[in-house]
């Protein structure tokens, strides 16, 4: 039997695998798994918890989209005060957002309905690009506010673009849909919620 070169006659110590090396990977995998679980929760992204549901919309005031007009009249921006007195649908969108293009025809359909106002928050976008986007696909909004810094979206708890909120007449956020609306989620989830909130009087 061979011995160590130092002549002690003892066998070499077995080294265990350094667990600390894997710790960051384990933490990352756990967080990624939690995020994935939330995104696939019941195959309905609107079910991701939001701390703002049934709470007043945050304070904000957004400037209008520069150069945008409707029937020759400049389209106004909006603030929290504009949410009081009527039901509002607030949609976060951007011209660079592919899923926003995907859901836009549904917003055009939504705009044909009565009993609420449809408001857009243009998120971190260039004014010329946003105008081109709306000029090409149509402008369903009653008002559009510009969130250049993204601060308002953060205060609304936005995960990404697009997202759509329903706010009741008191300015309270009642419903949140994360991601692009599609025909199924629009017909079976979003519209029933909107009609229920409008019916509350």
TrEMBL record:
InterPro entries referenced in this protein's UniProt entry, alphabetically: Periplasmic_diS_OxRdtase_DsbE, Redoxin, Thioredoxin-like_sf, Thioredoxin_CS, Thioredoxin_domain, Thioredoxin_ResA/DsbE_sf
Transmembrane segments: none
CDD domains: TlpA_like_DsbE
Pfam families to which the protein is assigned, alphabetical: Redoxin
Thioredoxin domain ranges (all copies): 51-196
GO molecular function terms noted in the UniProt entry: disulfide oxidoreductase activity
Listed name of the protein: Periplasmic protein thiol:disulfide oxidoreductase, DsbE subfamily
